[in-house]
Structures are given as C-alpha cells and as structure tokens.
Specification:
The complex is a heterodimer of chains A (300) and B (279). Chain A is mainly alpha-helical. In chain A, 76% of the residues lie in helices and 0% in strands. Chain B contains eight helices and ten strands. Classes of the chains: A mainly alpha (300), B alpha/beta (279).
Chain lengths: 300, 279
C-alpha cells in the first residue's frame, strides 16, 4: 500500500490492526443480524393502592388471630402453653381495669426515657469532646470499643445489686446500652467533619470554640438525630432487662412474674403492651427528628 | 458599576504601598521516608495595594502551601510574611482566603453563609445582615439569599463564596483556583464579575489558576512557579489596558504574553522533572 493513510482507512485491512480484527468485526455484524427482537416489557410494577395494602395488612392479622383462636378451641394448639386471643383479651381487660398495665407501662416508659436522655446527652457530649484533643481521643477510643464489645446485658445482675431494685438500676441499664453507641457514632461523625470547612473558618480568624460551635456541632447533629431511633429501642431493651433481673414494677417485671406463675395470657398482654410502647416511642422519635434537624441546626 | 470613579492601580505608573511581602519564604515537610520535601523554596513576592496578581504553575508547585502560609494557617520554615509592614508569620484572620471548593456551610442559607466572617469577628447578626443584603442584591445573588447551598448552581455557589470572602472585609484576598470546577461559559462570566468586584472594592488579589488565559486576562502581574521544589521562576508584567474586554484574548499583545507565559511554564515543568530525576 503506497497511498497515504488517513484515519478513515483504518477499517480496511491496515498494518496497524491486530490479527483477527476483521474477523471480529465480521462476527459482530453476524451477531447483530441474528439478534432476537426484544419485546416491549413493563419496566416497573405499578404502585399498589393504599387501600389495598391496608386491607391486606388487616386481613393477615385477623387471619392469624382467627387461626390461633379456632386452633386453640379445636385442640390443635395447646392453649396452656400458647394461650389464645380471647383469653388474652379478657386478661387485658382485667389488668386495664385494675390499672396494673398503666402503672407498669408508665414505670417502664419513665426508665426508658430517662436512660435514653442520659445516654444520648452523655454519649454525644463525650463523642464531641474527642474533637478537642487527639491524644485523649486516641487513648479513650479503644476503651469505648472494648466496652461496646462487652455484652452489657450480662452486667445487669451487677447493676441491680449495686443500685437496688428501684428505678435507678433500670435507668442505668438503659443508659449503658445507649451511651456507648452514641459515643462511637458521634466520634465517627466528628472524624467525618470536612477538614476544609474547619480550615476555612480558622482562616476567618475563628477561635477553636467558634469552630466547634459553628462547624463541628452542626456537622455532627444530623448523625446524632438519625441515631435516635436506634437509641430509643436500645433504651427500652435495657430498661426491660433491668426489670427482669429484679424489680417491683414495670412491664418486664410483669412478664417475668406471669412466666413464673404460668399465666401465659398475661405474658402476651405484657408483650403486646411493650410492642405498643415501643411503636409509640419509635413514632414519637421519628416525628421529633424532623423538627430537631431544622430547629436545632438553624440556631447554630 | 456601583462605584464609577475609581482610580485603577496601574502597575508601575504610581507608587503603591506594599501591602503584602513574602520575603524569602521556604517551607519543608518531613517526608514518609525520613527525608524532607521542599514544598516551597525562597519565595519572593511584593504585592502593592490594589494589585491583581496571578500565580500559575504545574500541580505540586507549592501554590496552596504559599497561600496557607499567607493566610497564617501554617508557618514558614524560614523567611517571613509581612502584611502592611508588620511580620505576620502564623497569624490568621488578616487576609480573606477562598479555597478551591466553595465550602459554604450546607446548613446555612446564602445570607447566613456570607456573613460568617463578620459574625466571627463579632459583628451583631442584624448589622451583618444589613450590610450583606444590599451587596447580595447588587452582585447577582438577590433572589438566592434564603436558599441553601445545595439548591444553587456551581457558579452561584462560587459567587456566594467569593462574596463571603469580600465581606470578611480584609484588604488582601487569596483566591485558590476559584473557577477551576466551572464550565467555560460560566467561568467567563465569573471572570467579568470578579473584575467588577475588584474594581468596586479595591482589594489586593492573589489568584491561583492553571489557566494561562485567565491569569493574563485578570492580572497586573503573573508569577510562574515550578514544581519540586516549588519556587517562583518568573514574573510577567501584564501591561494591557483596563478595563479589558473579553475580546482582548485575540489581540496580538495578549497572544505574545501567552507565548511568553507558556514558555516559562514549559520550562518550569522541565526544571521540575529534571530535579526529581537527579534526586
């Protein structure tokens, strides 16, 4: 080939092409002509209507309860061990009328909230304090992680022995579960603070305290807020476990007592009340999240 | 624009106060293998009041190191930073510094962001607002005051960041590749806009860029830096008349300056590479 090569000639047999290139191109062409026609497909399922979803949800719950009740009556399910919905309902009415359930729920609610608040405020404060000194943070971090690795529920007997069977041991259990997670979460958030942002604010002549308030705290807050939902669940767990170990009041104590007297219906009442309490706390915290994010952050 | 009768500090024609002097400044860092990295060697820079200075150079030429030193975020290993006649090594808060990213605080509105400097220097929020509002209006951010940075385009964010730097109210401002991430069109607008601001506020500007055209178009003087070790290798006075129109980039003078700058810059790359090989 003596004529000058232009880039366009590259598709014809040119010395710069690797051997087999033209065969590969030919094969591609063949494949193209053999390719099956792709039929029209529905890309995504339609969003089901809310009404339909809700009906299904209610239907499943009603179905389970019906099977349970009928099964217990027909002897398929042992009502001594499993109880049955009608019995549970009767027990619930009795405990509601006597005020037992409300009193116990209030006790558990109180220790949960107290543990949650102490744990979150304490944990966030400690986590934020790590920003101030690298030495302190490096020394403290492995200790916090070690405490986190420890199954804190195993500490319950000690805590109840030390703090007694009153509310303080339940608050302490709830706090213990919440605080470590909060410390680690906050410290992770502190480390994630954009260094360039702090540099910029320092360049404006800010003091460390100003950088802390204007950059670090607002950067960390979204992390804290998004961890609150997990924290409230942990606080409830801690409080209930504290009650199992030794208490005079609370839903955990009620369940434990019912178990030791074979009052299965009462166990279920306790469990369902706990579930309701847990759902209530979760929803309350979720609602608070939005307000908190806007309100607190704007103030700084 | 807002202030029409401004006497432009034409480089060389009038005696100007030396606002910023970088005198024999070097900065070395310990390297991981136990040696030292010379980030900046014997930098000399004398900047008059109201001058617009650009620094161009390959990556790793120590431009950002130099800026950090002038901003007082870092201290020189030797030499001194003199601002308004006083040695200011390691002293923060004396110059406005705009980093490569816009670095607007995402949880603050544009208005709250631009008053940050005033706020830190202790100005009451109300007063800071009353200063910032008309300026935001004048400089094209009037409709965006209550928006959050996440709702703004890249160009708008840079404007807000630049206004924050101006509102910090220092005579010297350092701009580290402020338009580097913008598309060509926006970039051109921003250059115009920056020159307007410079005109109106009479700031002394140090501007880092990779773009030779940008450096020549904006500046009174352009400094060329080389990499490894970072040093200032050439100074190019830009005697183009102001105000400059964007069409100036095709004029013979501009093209000649560009060729000069490119020559120095290519040289800078070579010098840099050569020294690395010898190491």
């Amino acid at each position: 080939m003596t004529d000058t090569m232009t880039p366009r000639d590259a598709t014809s047999a040119s010395p710069s092409l690797a051997p087999g290139t033209s065969e590969a191109l030919g094969r591609l062409g063949e494949l193209r002509s053999q390719a099956p026609v792709i039929s029209r497909r529905r890309r995504a399922a339609k969003e089901p209507s809310t009404w339909r979803v809700n009906m299904l949800r209610v239907g499943i719950v009603v179905g389970i309860l019906t099977v349970w009740e009928v099964g217990a009556n027909l002897g398929w399910i042992d009502a001594f061990f499993w109880s049955q919905p009608s019995q549970i309902w009767d027990t619930a009415k009795v405990t509601l009328e006597s005020g037992d359930i409300v009193r116990n729920a209030r006790f558990t609610f109180g220790s949960t909230i107290a543990g949650f608040l102490i744990g979150v405020i304490g944990g966030v404060s400690i986590g934020l304090s790590f920003w101030w000194s690298r030495t302190y943070a490096l020394v403290a971090e492995p200790m916090v992680i070690a405490f986190e690795a420890m199954p804190k529920l195993a500490l319950a007997p000690i805590i109840v022995l030390v703090l007694g069977i009153g509310i303080s041991s339940k608050v302490a259990m709830a706090t213990a579960l919440v605080i470590v997670i909060q410390i680690l979460n906050t410290y992770a958030a502190v480390r994630a603070v954009d260094n360039d942002l702090t540099t910029l604010v320092y360049s404006l002549g800010a003091s460390r305290w100003q950088v802390f308030l204007k950059v670090v705290v607002p950067s960390v807050l979204p992390w804290v807020v998004s961890s609150l939902r997990v924290a409230i669940g942990l606080a409830l767990t801690g409080a209930v476990v504290g009650e199992y170990i030794g208490s005079r009041e609370g839903l955990g104590r009620m369940i434990q007592y019912a178990g030791s007297t074979y009052d299965i219906a009462l166990i279920w009442v306790g469990v369902f009340t706990l579930a309701l309490l847990s759902a209530f706390l979760y929803i309350a915290v979720s609602l608070a999240e939005r307000g908190l994010l806007k309100g607190v952050i704007r103030a700084t | 624009m807002a202030i029409a009768e401004v006497v432009l500090p034409d480089a060389g024609t009038e005696t100007v106060l030396e606002q910023l002097v970088v005198d024999g400044v070097s900065r070395t860092f310990p390297s991981p293998d136990g040696g030292v990295v010379e980030a900046l060697v014997d930098a000399q820079l004398r900047v008059g009041q109201g001058e617009f200075i650009s620094l161009i150079g390959p990556s790793g030429c120590g431009k950002s190191t130099l800026f950090n030193l002038i901003a007082g975020l870092d201290e020189p290993t030797s030499g001194s930073i003199v601002i308004d006649g006083v040695e200011r090594n390691g002293q923060q808060g004396l110059v406005g510094y705009m980093l490569q990213k816009d670095l607007l605080l995402p949880w603050r509105t544009v208005l709250d962001n631009v008053v940050l400097g005033l706020e830190i220097s202790g100005v009451a929020r109300k007063e800071a607002y009353s200063i910032a509002r008309p300026l935001l209006q004048t400089y094209g951010l009037g409709g965006f005051m209550d928006r959050y940075p996440g709702q703004l385009s890249g160009g708008m964010k840079q404007r807000a960041a630049l206004l924050r730097t101006i509102l910090f109210n220092r005579d010297v401002i350092l701009l580290d590749e402020p338009f580097g991430a913008l598309d060509a069109q926006t970039r051109e607008h921003m250059q115009e806009w920056l020159l307007d601001l410079w005109d109106d506020f009479q700031k002394t500007v140090l501007f880092v860029t990779h773009d030779i055209d940008e450096a020549i178009y904006l500046s009174d003087r352009v400094f060329v830096m080389s990499a490894r070790p970072g040093r200032i290798v050439a100074e190019i006075p830009i005697a183009l008349e102001r105000p400059r129109s964007p069409s100036i980039v095709t004029s013979p003078e501009f093209v000649a300056l560009k060729a000069t700058a490119r020559g120095y810059l290519n040289n800078a790359h070579r010098i840099g590479g050569h020294i690395v090989v010898e190491d």
